[in-house]
Structure formats: C-alpha cells, structure tokens
Automatic annotation (TrEMBL):
Keywords: Membrane, Transmembrane, Transmembrane helix. This is Band 7 domain-containing protein. Belongs to the band 7/mec-2 family. InterPro entries: Band-7_stomatin-like (IPR043202), Band_7 (IPR001107), Band_7/SPFH_dom_sf (IPR036013), Stomatin_HflK_fam (IPR001972). Signal peptide: none annotated. Residues 20-177 form the Band domain. The chain crosses the membrane at residues 6-25. GO terms for cellular component: plasma membrane; side of membrane. It comes from the Bacteria.
C-alpha cells in the first residue's frame, strides 16, 4: 500500500513538473530563454520545454506597439511657446537585444521619443510646425529609430497629433490672416479695374479707327439703355439720306 502511494506521488510530481516545464508561445511571440544565466537561442512559436529551476523564459511581443508620447512644452525657433502631442509606432525586430541591451525597452523608447520631440521641434519655426508636419514627422522617426536600433527596436511611424499655442498668439495670427485677406482683395480689385480700363482703351482705339463701328456701338448702347420697351433704331447708310439732307434751294422766277 505504501509503495502504491509512493508511485502515485511520484507520478503526480512528474506530471506537475512536466506541465510547469512547458510553455506555449503564440505566433506573434518569441521567447528569450536563459539557462543558468546564459542566453540561449530564441524559442517559439509553439510549445517550448524548459528545465525546471534551471531555465527562465521571457516572452517578447513582436506586434506593433502604439506609444502615446506625453504632451511636451517646447519653444520654437522664433520664440513661440507651444504644447505638442504626438504618437509613435514601433515593434521589436530582435527580441534578444530588446531584453539584453536595455532594461524595460518600452519605457526607454518613450523617454527617447520625448527627448527627441523637444529637441527637433525646438529647432523649427512655428509656421513649419503648423504646415510642414510631414518633414518633421519623418525627421523624428529617423532620429528615434537610429537611437533605438541597437536595442532591436524598429520605429515605423511618428505623427504629431496636435499643436497648442497661447490664445494671445492665436488672436494675433487671426488678425494677420484677416489683414492678408484684405490685402489680397484690394490687389484683386485693383487688377480688375486695371484690366477694365485697358479694355476701354482698346475699344476706344478700335472705334476711333472705324467710324462705322462707332455708329453701330452708339445705336446698340441706345437699345441697351431703353430696356425691354425701347425704340429699336435701325442703322441706315448715310448715302441714301444725302439727297434729302442736301436738297437744292428753289430758284426765284423772273420778275
């Protein structure tokens, strides 16, 4: 009876040890295994067998991580204070380096992103920060990626989400934009008046060279001014009216 219980106890212990020695890694996971403190080849995906009390396994997620960069207070190159929010996307490409080269790689990546954001945006002007974000995003991504590459981290995208500037600066920018719109409107109006005067000068020059065209234009103007119930004036050649305009005077008979 004692031997049976002993065998049963040994079986239970072996089963328990077996279950505790097996790890199942998903497709997007890799295992960084240390055996007595020494790094072993990467494990996974699938089942991984570990030696109890000897092997230590650390799971590393290979999926893209969304890192929200906390709002940063920056002063642009033209001395304008701004509050900037950004987001970064990164993923682990070398799990062994992410574990052995840096402690807590998500925190380290976040700190690098915050420092780089303040440094890069501090060298840019406000206009570039508001309208040239594509270049700034690319510059941020490249700099952060260069610093995290030794850790086996690949930064794929960095996006500036929002830029907050003081209310006084917003009102000043609104006034400047309104003044610019008024200036453009005046320029367009002046150009229209200049073009209209040029057309009048060209028309007067053409009419001065052709008197018949001047007569027709005058008659057309009369019709346009008369409205819908105006008298229509038909042009007649002056040659037909000449006999009536220059009729001979009657001669006095002999007295």
């Amino acid at each position: 009876m004692t031997a049976t219980w002993t065998v049963l106890l040994i079986v239970v212990v072996l089963v328990g040890v077996t279950f505790t020695s097996i790890r199942v890694l998903r497709e997007y996971e890799r295992g960084v295994c240390f055996r007595l403190g020494r790094l072993r080849p990467l494990a996974g995906p699938g089942p991984v067998f570990l030696l109890p009390f000897i092997d230590r396994l650390i799971r590393v997620d290979l999926r893209t991580v969304t890192l929200t960069i906390p709002p940063q207070e920056v002063i642009t190159r033209d001395n304008v204070p701004a509050r900037v929010n950004a987001v970064a996307y990164f993923r682990v490409v070398k799990p062994d380096l992410a574990i052995t080269e840096v402690e807590a790689y998500p925190v380290a990546t976040s700190q690098i992103a915050q420092t780089t954001l303040r440094s890069v945006l501090g060298k840019a002007e406000l206009d570039t920060l508001l309208s040239g974000r594509d270049e700034l995003n690319d510059s941020l991504r490249r700099i952060i990626d260069e610093q995290t590459e030794p850790w086996g981290i690949k930064v794929t995208t960095v996006e500036i989400k929002d830029v907050e500037i003081p209310e006084v600066m917003q009102r000043a920018m609104a006034r400047a934009a309104e003044a610019e719109r008024e200036r453009r409107a005046k320029v367009i109006s002046a150009e229209g008046e200049f073009q209209a005067s040029q057309r009048l000068l060209d028309a007067s020059e053409i009419l001065s060279r052709n008197p018949a065209a001047m007569q027709l234009r005058y008659q057309q103007t009369l019709v346009e001014l008369g409205g819908e119930k105006s008298t229509i004036v038909f042009p007649l050649p002056l040659d037909l009216l000449a006999p009536f305009l220059h009729s001979p005077k009657p001669q006095n008979g002999p007295t």
